[in-house]
Amino acid sequence: MGGVTADPTTLRLLTLNALFRGDVRARLRALGGILDRAGYDVVCLQEVMYRHHARLLWRLARSYPHHASTGAVALGGGLVILSRWPIVRCRFGRYPVSRPLRPELLMRKGAQLARVAVPGGDLAVVNTHLSANRDHDWSAGNRYSRVAADELDRLGALMSGIDPALPVVVAGDFNLPRDSPVLARFRAAARLRDALAGSAEPTYRPTPELPAPPAFDHVLVRPAPDRELTARSRIVFRDAVMLADGRPGYLSDHYGVDTELVLPAIRGNG
Predict the structure, then answer these.
(1) Which of 46, 61, 70, 220 makes an SS bond possible with 170, Cβ 3.0 to 4.6 Å?
(2) Is residue 2 part of a domain?
C-alpha cells in the first residue's frame, strides 16, 4: 500500500545569552519563571557559568524535565540546554585556545551537541558560544576574525559526527554579525540556512561603546536528506521585566531569538 504521512511537528526553540555578570540570581529567577510559562520545547542558554545557577533554573522552569550541561562546579562553555522532550545524548566540545590571550579563555567556550527525541523523530540541537571580537572589527583579516574562523572550523568538525539522517538546528551567541565573511563561509560549508536571513535587527542591547550593534545571536538550520525543515524566527526579551527582588530590569544584555520549527512527519507504510 502507499505511504502514510502524519501531521507535521511544530516546535519552538529559544536561544539566549543569559549574561553571567551583575545581578545574576535575580535575573535567572525571573528568567526561570518566564521560561516555565512560555511554552518553548527546547531552550539553548549561554553564560550560565555555574552549576548552582543551572540548578536554580531547573527548579524554577519545571516544565522542562530534561536538561544538559557539563561540569561539576563551572559549566563547560557556560552552556545549558533545557527541553520538554528527552535528550537522548549530549556531548561538549571545547574550542581551541588561541591568541590574543584574554580573560574570556577561562570560560572554556565550545559547543553542546545534543540529540533530542521530539515528536515525530529525533532532532540534532547544537548550542554554542564563540569568542567575542574586542576590536568590533569583523573584517576577514582582523585578529578576532581569525579566532572565530578557528572556532567555526572546530564546530564544523564536531558537527561532522552528527547522524546525517537528522535535521539540525545550530543556535547561540556567535559574536559575529549576519554578514560576516567568516560566518558566511561556515554556513555554506555546513549547508546551514539562517532563520533570520535578511533581517537587520540587532540581538544585543545598544551601549555607548556599541550604539548600533548587529545581530550576534543566530539560529541556523539544516534539513535531513528526506525531511524538510522550515524555521521562522523573531527577536524577544527586548523589554524590561520585573526581577525577583521587585526591581525592573532586563533579563540580559542580549535579546533572545524565538524560532518556530516545522518538521514534516516521517513517511511510513500504510
Answers:
(1) 220
(2) no
Q: Is residue 136 part of a domain?
A: yes
> How far out from the chain centre does Cα 225 lie?
23
The domain in which residue 157 lies consists of 7-264
Residues 36 and 240: beta-carbon distance below 8 Å? no
> 186 pairs with which residues across the strands?
none
Location of C-alpha cell 539566549: 16
> CA–CA distance from 119 to each of 66, 85, 168, 169 (Å)?
15, 8, 15, 16
pLDDT tens track for 104-119? 888 999 999 999 999 9
What is the arrangement of strands in the sheet containing 230-236, beginning at the earlier edge strand? 66-68, 80-83, 42-46, 9-17, 256-263, 230-236
Cell numbers that stand for 226 in this block: 528526506
Residue type, 270: G
Which residue in 18, 14, 15 sits closest to 252, CA to CA?
Answer: 18
Instruction: Find the length of the chain.
Output: 270
Condensed to tens digits (0 to 9), the pLDDT of residues 25-80 reads 999 999 999 999 999 999 999 999 999 999 999 999 999 999 999 998 999 999 99
**Helix, strand or coil, per DSSP, at residue 145:** helix
Q: Please check whether residue 112 is in contact with residue 158, taking contact to mean a CB–CB distance below 8 angstroms.
A: no
